[in-house]
Each structure stands twice: as structure tokens, then as C-alpha cells.
Design brief:
The complex is a heterodimer of chains A (about 550) and B (about 40).
Chain A (H helix, E strand, L loop, with lengths): L15 H17 L9 E4 H11 L6 H10 L6 E5 L2 E6 L10 H4 L3 H6 L58 E2 L7 H13 L4 E4 L2 E4 L8 H13 L4 E3 H8 L9 H13 L5 E3 L7 E4 L12 H7 L17 E5 L2 H6 L1 E3 L2 H4 L12 E8 L4 E8 L8 E3 L2 H7 L5 E6 L5 E6 L1 E13 L4 E11 L23 H4 L2 H12 L1 E2 L8 E4 H8 L7 H9 L6 E3 L6 E4 L4
Chain B lengths: L1 E2 L2 H13 L4 E2 H13 L1
The chains are: A alpha+beta (about 550), B mainly alpha (about 40).
């Protein structure tokens, strides 16, 4: 159980206005020295304090004077120090006068580090440590009363080893806010603050961790019970804030409460799982009933989509907030869609690093149904994808169907549309699960298709009675393309010495039966020269040969 | 790799620790740019 220490605020002197300002500024001191002991001096310059206040209320031009007066009016709390033109104020987390502490500090751990022990009789062979003396960069250390010989500057670690080996660190370029672009500054901010434990981070928002409301175990239990009671087992951060914590949307601290809900629950990974986006919080209990595919594990689908970590990053110009997609056989079979650059442009971004999934809904105006799905974010070696559409695809679409996915005003809610047509009958490719073979079945469908991607018996007759490729072969895209030539191409030589000929579009449709093969990957394999078995037909655009190794 | 100067980092930390409301990355970018202009 974690006990939270609470410190009472000190009493301030001066006029009402000075007292209010001093109380406000005292919180800045306390935040700055949050890791300090209660009596350690915290020192901030007048310029630093004025800068913070100017950021909050830029219209006020007299901050230095007002701050100086306000803090000087409480000499029991703040000590004013002048060094040349610079003015500093010093206090402690307790709000007590920081003077006269040096005598006590001689017994603290930092002092024991700073004062060398007497020499041992037998030398100790110490290995050189590879560390430069780190200093905690929070507040400038206040000078202690200067008499004592050893430097007792608090919170500075004195190096013990004589030799300091050079540390290999990647070259980091300091960004100049005056000249750098917004993106460059933003990247530097994310890098710097993302690893600072004193700053809480959710989506694209930041706040000092200490400023954020903390929840008691009782609060967390009530939130847990609330989520458990919901039929879908998923609730939004706004529901938690309003229904469990009783904070109204018009309350001044509503935004920070939502932030606190999302940030604090994200630290309780044993109890809760985040399923929201960078801007909309959504929570379930840990290990929720996952939305997945029935025929293939999510981890295997993620492995299949590993290619998206390298390919599928070009965005095809489309209407803002809308993506057009042609359904492949693989996607149709497992009810998935690739989280490529196009899809990422409209899908939610994760709210936290290492977030597994986001819960989204797709509404189909054609069928008047709403389907729950999950966006699975990419991990180290797995690509991202959307899963949960297996039944919808099976009931309404065929491979080759043209889909549009459109953002709506509702967060995490999308329109999934297709063009309805009068019934069309064709023999289309299916996988006979019992026999473990591909077969062509008469199929009637009512969705518009892109003919190049429709796997019909007259275009791909050689697929009939073929077995799906084994997992090992599927892991190698070039071997999948070998099979695509054999199944979708034409042998232009002899049966004993075959040479297959196929159009790019045929290969794309046939290869995407077994696994995701983005067009860029297919073209790269066919034309890079890395695989000499493939060659381009110089006389026909987008036509290729495959000569199997004899 | 781009990083913040110590002074900029200190400024942002002070800003964040003293604010009751969350700030977006864009707001922090603006704060640094305004500070650099002064």
C-alpha cells in the first residue's frame, strides 16, 4: 500500500493580493523540489518565476516587481538573495525558512558521498566507472552557509572513480526554438519530456505529474466496478469522470480530470486496459474479451502484416478523412484490413506508448448494422491491422469488393460503405476448410467490385484443388510470388522447362490470397534484381516472367 | 536526433509543473518560440 505524504501550506504575509500570489508561486517551488527532502533549499530566480507567470498571464507586464514584492513580504517562508543583477528566492518544501540548515545537512547521504573516507590500509582495486557526474537539473542548488570546507552543495553527486571513461552517446543536436521548424521543436519536446517521470503524458498532452489528481484505492475500486457493470465492458473517460467521480463537464478541472483518469488508470495495468485514442479515452478491465479472427491468431496476422513496417507507407491522395480500399482474399478470409499509411491517416493514434489496441465501430449504411472492431497497433516486429470484420465481410462482400471507410464526427466511429449492385453470379475462389483445398463455388453477390481483384474461375483456373501454402513458405514473399505466377500466370515454355508469364494485377490478386503483399513490395521483388528468377517483359507494360530454378 | 537545450527543458518543466491544465505539444512549441523571440 502506498502512503501519500501531504504537506500543509505555510502562512504568507503581505496584502491579500501578495498572499495569493505567494501561495501560487510556492506551488511552483514545491513542484520544482518534488524529490527534495522537506527541509532542502529550493532556489528559483526571479526571472524564472516571472517567465512562468508571463506565460500564464501575458498581459501583465509587471511580474518581476509584483513577484519580488509578494515573496519579500513573507520573509519567514522565502529568503531573498541578490547576486549582481540577478535576484533569487529560496524556500523549502515545508515552506520553512531555509537558513540555518547547513548544520543538519552534514548528516545526510549526499554529505557522506561528498566527504571521502579515510584511506584503507590495503588498496582496493576499483574498476573505472563510465559515468560523468550527473546533476539533477531541477532547481539550482542553493548555497549552504559557506564556512565548511567540503562542498555540501545538495543533490550533486561527486564522482568517486579517478578515471572516467568516455561514454558513447548518440549525437544529439540541440534545437534552436528561434529557427527550427514546428515539427523539429515538437520532436525534441516529445523526446525530452517523454522520458521525464515528473511529466504526465497522454496522447499529445502534457502536465506536471504532481499537478494531476491522484485516486485513492477506493476510487479505483469504484471505477473497476463501474466498468464491470457495463454491458460491453468498455467505458469512456467522460463516463468515469462524470458518473464515478462526479465531475461535471463545465467544471474548471474537467479537462485535467479526464487527463488524470487516463494517466492514472494507465499506471494500473493489472486492473485496466486502455482501448482509446490519443484524444478520446476508453477503458476496459485488463485482459478484455479480445475482438479477433476465428481462423488465425492475432499474433500470426501481425506477423503477416510485418511487411507494413517497411512497405505500405505511401499515402494515395484521397478525399480528406476517407479511404478507398479493395478487399483482398486474405483480408476477406480473416476479416481484417491493413493499418497502412492510408488507413493510419483516418484511424485513431494510440494514446500511450505500447498500447495494444483501440476499440472502434464501423457503421454500414447499406446494411444498417454497426460492427465492433479493434485497431491493433504495430509492435516491434508485427505490423498493424484492423480486426473484427470477418462476419460482415462474409455476409455482404466478396474479395475484390471496393470499400470506402470514412471518419465521422463521433470519435472512434467510422462509416464502412460499399456500392450495392444488382446480384451478380460468378464462380469465385473459396477455401474448402474440410478438404484443405481451394475451390471455385457459384456465388451471388451484391457489391461493386474491381474486376482485376476478383478471383474468378475463368481468370485463375489453376487455383482449383491447390492446397494453401504452408506457413514456412508464406513467410517468404518471393516464394508466395512464385506460387502466384504458377496459379495466376501462363506457362509460355514447356511443362518440363516452364517459364511463367503474368500481369502485375494478376500477381497482386493471386499473391494476396495467401498473405498481405502490398503493391510496392510486389514491384520491389519483381524489379529489384535481387531475385534473378523474375524479369520484366520489355514489350508489355507491367508484365513479368518467372523462370523457376531447374 | 533533436533535443532541447537544458534551459528550454527547464523552462517547459517549470511551465508544466505550475499549470493546472494540460498543455498540448503545439502549445509547448509556441511557448518555446515566444520565449526565443524575447
Amino acid at each position: 500500500m502506498q502512503a501519500e505524504q501531504t504537506l500543509a501550506d505555510p502562512a504568507f504575509d503581505g496584502t491579500d493580493e501578495e498572499q495569493a500570489l505567494a501561495a501560487d508561486l510556492f506551488q511552483i517551488f514545491r513542484a520544482q523540489g518534488r524529490f527534495f527532502s522537506d527541509k532542502a533549499p529550493i532556489r528559483l530566480s526571479l526571472a524564472q518565476l516571472a517567465e512562468v507567470m508571463a506565460q500564464r498571464q501575458p498581459r501583465v507586464k509587471t511580474w518581476p516587481k509584483r513577484i519580488d514584492e509578494a515573496l519579500s513580504a513573507s520573509p519567514d517562508v522565502f529568503v531573498r538573495e541578490a547576486a549582481g543583477d540577478d535576484v533569487f528566492f529560496v524556500t523549502t518544501r515545508q515552506g520553512t525558512h531555509p537558513s540555518g540548515l547547513s548544520g543538519q545537512r552534514e548528516q545526510v547521504l549526499t554529505t557522506r558521498f561528498a566527504v571521502p573516507l579515510p584511506k584503507r590500509e590495503r588498496p582496493v582495486h576499483a574498476t573505472p566507472t563510465a559515468a560523468t557526474p550527473p546533476t539533477i537539473p531541477a532547481a539550482e542548488a542553493a548555497p549552504t552557509e559557506a564556512a565548511a570546507a567540503p562542498d555540501l552543495t545538495p543533490f550533486e553527486v561527486v564522482p568517486v572513480a579517478a578515471e572516467v571513461a568516455p561514454v558513447a552517446t548518440p549525437a544529439a543536436l540541440e534545437v534552436d526554438a528561434a529557427t527550427a521548424s514546428d515539427d523539429e521543436i515538437a520532436a525534441a519536446i516529445r523526446l525530452a519530456l517523454g522520458s521525464d517521470m515528473s511529466v504526465a503524458h497522454w496522447g499529445d498532452q502534457w502536465i506536471g505529474e504532481e499537478r494531476l489528481h491522484r485516486f485513492s484505492r477506493g476510487d479505483l475500486r469504484r471505477i473497476e466496478d463501474f466498468i464491470r457493470e457495463q454491458p460491453g465492458g468498455v467505458v469512456s473517460d467522460t463516463e468515469i469522470a462524470q458518473d464515478v467521480l462526479g465531475v461535471r463537464p463545465n467544471a474548471a478541472d474537467y479537462a485535467s480530470t479526464l487527463f488524470a483518469v487516463n494517466y492514472r488508470l494507465s499506471r494500473e495495468t493489472r486492473e485496466f486496459e486502455y482501448l482509446g485514442s490519443a484524444t478520446n479515452g476508453l477503458w476496459s478491465l485488463a485482459n478484455p474479451a479480445a475482438i479477433g479472427a476465428t481462423k488465425r491468431k492475432a499474433s500470426e496476422i501481425g506477423q503477416d502484416y510485418r511487411v507494413l513496417l517497411e512497405y505500405g507507407n505511401s499515402i494515395e491522395a484521397a478525399e480528406e478523412g476517407l479511404v478507398e480500399h479493395i478487399l483482398s482474399f486474405y483480408e476477406y478470409s480473416y476479416g481484417v484490413l491493413p493499418l497502412d499509411a492510408n488507413m493510419r491517416s483516418i484511424m485513431p493514434a494510440p494514446g500511450f506508448r505500447d498500447q495494444r489496441a483501440a476499440r472502434v465501430t464501423f457503421e454500414s449504411p447499406q446494411t444498417s448494422e454497426t460492427v465492433q472492431a479493434e485497431v491493433r497497433f504495430p509492435t516491434g516486429n508485427r505490423g498493424g491491422f484492423i480486426v473484427g470484420l470477418e462476419q460482415f465481410f462474409a455476409e455482404n462482400l466478396v474479395p475484390g469488393a471496393v470499400l470506402t471507410i470514412e471518419k465521422t464526427d463521433q470519435p472512434l466511429h467510422y462509416l464502412l460503405e460499399y456500392f450495392q449492385v444488382s446480384g451478380e453470379d460468378r464462380k469465385l475462389l473459396h477455401l474448402d476448410e474440410k478438404k484443405g483445398k481451394y475451390t471455385f463455388r457459384p456465388t451471388t453477390y451484391y457489391c461493386a467490385t474491381q474486376d482485376e481483384y476478383v478471383l474468378s474461375d475463368n481468370r485463375f483456373p489453376r487455383f482449383a484443388d491447390q492446397k494453401p501454402l504452408d506457413e514456412r513458405t508464406k513467410r517468404h514473399p518471393e516464394q508466395v510470388i512464385h506460387a502466384a505466377f504458377e496459379r495466376g500466370g501462363e506457362n509460355v515454355e514447356t511443362a518440363d522447362n516452364p517459364k511463367y508469364y503474368a500481369l502485375f494485377s494478376d500477381l497482386l490478386a493471386a499473391a494476396n490470397v495467401e498473405r498481405p503483399v502490398p503493391a510496392e513490395l510486389l514491384r520491389d521483388i519483381l524489379t529489384s534484381g535481387k531475385y534473378p528468377e523474375f524479369s520484366a517483359d520489355e514489350t508489355t507494360e507491367d508484365a513479368f516472367f518467372y523462370t523457376p530454378a531447374s | 536526433m533533436l533535443t532541447l537545450s537544458e534551459s528550454d527543458l527547464m523552462y517547459l518543466l517549470t511551465l508544466l509543473r505550475s499549470s493546472d491544465q494540460p498543455m498540448t505539444t503545439a502549445e509547448l512549441v509556441l511557448a518555446l518560440q515566444e520565449r526565443a523571440r524575447k
